[in-house]
Each structure stands twice: as structure tokens, then as C-alpha cells.
């Protein structure tokens, strides 16, 4: 059989499988809608009969608490509490509304066995096994109403090099994961990570010179190859998280030159050198190691990530990213940088995304486990704050749980 015949057969099988899954989901939704309609009719009938049978009475005024002082009403022209007096009124005037459409679910993927591997510092999150674990988790997310994911591959140490060339291997784990996700869920919006730290033996987003300098332009050259390889695999949105100068424009040009003018770029515009990234680096084993003999390896990423003390610097970065062709601009982390989200929102017409990072997730998990917080209420409040500050999209490890909670509320 020729290559084209095999390709055609594979495409047909994939399309048929996807159509079958879509038909099953549609049938299930129709059945649920019919059940809800039947339940609603029964409830309406019951309420109507009860109202018809209820005798008319004079409403009794509410009882005041014992010892309440008798005071004349205040002479107030405006009483804001009137607009908060009932759940119906509060919902009618709610200014910020969260939906599962706002969420992007980050997934960690490994290819060293068929079992998911729990991430110790992120309770409830796993390195998902390629194929089985990944597909099952994404199907779970879609069932909850979350149809956007960002893929982070766990690269085995044996494939890591000082230059991180595995980043643009056409048969790399990231590329295969993207292809499998798009083949299985054609309408899934797949975001990718563009940086060298998961593939770099030195744990940095760029190539490191022996004197500790992170090489900018040489790194950007490889980032362009990485971005194109991800686009070829089927990525919808390329997300450079490296913070190298000029990388957005270079990646945009590289994508356009290869015919990927339809592929978007979500730039990590304001990525701060934050203490909240620790659990993520455990998940991918991507933290900078101690310096080796003869090499001065920077102990952190302060040379290229932004100083948490700075605000105006973000405006400079955002102006550059927008001019270079970014489609979405991100703030990372989210919770401690709501002012930055608001500032970006006020200074650009581009959509804003924010990353509720691993440290934020783990703090909420730990506080909830200790009984200090109501997890559901605290998580939804944190996500509401991020959106209220101006984020159109939020990357969060709570995406599936939050989507379910919103559906139940």
C-alpha cells in the first residue's frame, strides 16, 4: 500500500472515530436535556398546585431581635445594600462572570511507562503517561467544559544537552503529544511551551556560556525551530516563555515563512523571576543545577525574567511584543501580580492571559488540606480576582475542578 493510501486510511479512521465520539456526546447531551425538561415540568406543576391550594394570608412583619434600640431611619439618599439584598439581585448585577471557556488546563506528559506519576508538591496533579493518561485527562477536561490545554513534556535526562536540541526533534515528546491530541480531539485548542529549560542540561531557558551569560540571539535561533516544529505537529498557539529579547518577532517571521500564518502566539510578556515556580520545576525536573567545574551557571533566572519589584518594565515589554506580532500577552504569576494584569489590560487592545502557577495551586491545596480554607470558595475567588483584574484567559491547574464547581453553582 502506498504512503498516501496509508495516510488517507489513517485520516478516515481518525475522522470516523472523532465523529463517533461527537455523536455519542451529542446523544448524551440530548438525553440530559430531556431529563432536565421533564424534571422542570414536574416541578412547575407541583409549585402551581401548591400555590393554588394555599390560603390567602396577611403577611406578618419580621420580628426584631430582643433589645434592639429604637432609632429613626438615617436620612440616606443612596443605600448600596439594596442592590445586594437577594441572590437574584446580586446575580443580576454581577460584573465579572467566570466560565470554563476562560480556562486553559496545563498538562505534564511523560513517555517512560504507562502509569501516571504523581507530583509530590502538587497534590492531585500527575505527569500523565503519553497516550493513555494524557488522552483520558484531556477527555475529562472536555467533559467539564474545558477545551484548551497547554502541553509541558518531561524530557528524560538522557535526551538533554547544553543546547537543548531535543526541543525541535520532530519525533520529540512535545511534538508527538500535540499530534495525538489534535488527531483525537480536532477542535481542542492546543497551546505549547517554547523555551529550552525542559531540554537543557543546565536548566535555563536559553543556552549558557561558560562565564554564565545566557546567549540571547543564538537561543532565539533554536526557539524559532522549536516553534515551527510544534506548528507542524498541529499546535494552535505557540507560547514563548523564555523571555529572550526579540523572540516574538523572530518566531512570527519563522512561522509565516513556513506557511503557519494562522498559528497564534501567546507571549509570556510579563514573566517575573518568582518564588512561586518551585513545584513546576519539580514536575519537569527543570531547575538550574549547581555550577559544574569550569562553568559559572546562574543560580536563578533573574538575568532574563523580570524583577518582581518592577512595573514600568512591563509596559516596555508589552509594547515590544505587540509590535513584534503577539496575539495574546501573558502575566505570570497571576495572584501576586493583579496590578500588572490590570495595567496591561488598560494599555493594550490584545487579549490578556494570566498563569495561576504551581506555587499558587500548592498553597491553596495545602491550606485546604489543613482545614484553613474552604478550597472551592477560595479557588473560585482567586480565579474571579484574576479575571476581574483583566485576564481574558487563565492557565490554572484547577481548571477541571473549577469548571465542575461553576456548573454545580
UniProtKB/TrEMBL annotation:
Low complexity composition bias: residue spans: 1-32
Pathway: Porphyrin-containing compound metabolism; protoporphyrin-IX biosynthesis; coproporphyrinogen-III from 5-aminolevulinate: step 1/4
Subunit structure: Homooctamer.
Physiological role: Catalyzes an early step in the biosynthesis of tetrapyrroles. Binds two molecules of 5-aminolevulinate per subunit, each at a distinct site, and catalyzes their condensation to form porphobilinogen.
Family from the record: Belongs to the ALAD family.
Broadest EC class assigned to this enzyme: lyase
Pfam family, one: ALAD
Keyword annotations from UniProtKB, A to Z: Chlorophyll biosynthesis, Heme biosynthesis, Lyase, Porphyrin biosynthesis
Documented EC number(s): 4.2.1.24
Keyword field contains ATP-binding: no
Native organism: Bathycoccus prasinos
Top-level taxon in the UniProt lineage: Eukaryota
Gene Ontology cellular-component terms listed: cytosol
Catalytic activity: 2 5-aminolevulinate = porphobilinogen + 2 H2O + H(+)
Region (Disordered): 1-86
GO MF, one annotated term: zinc ion binding
Protein name: Delta-aminolevulinic acid dehydratase
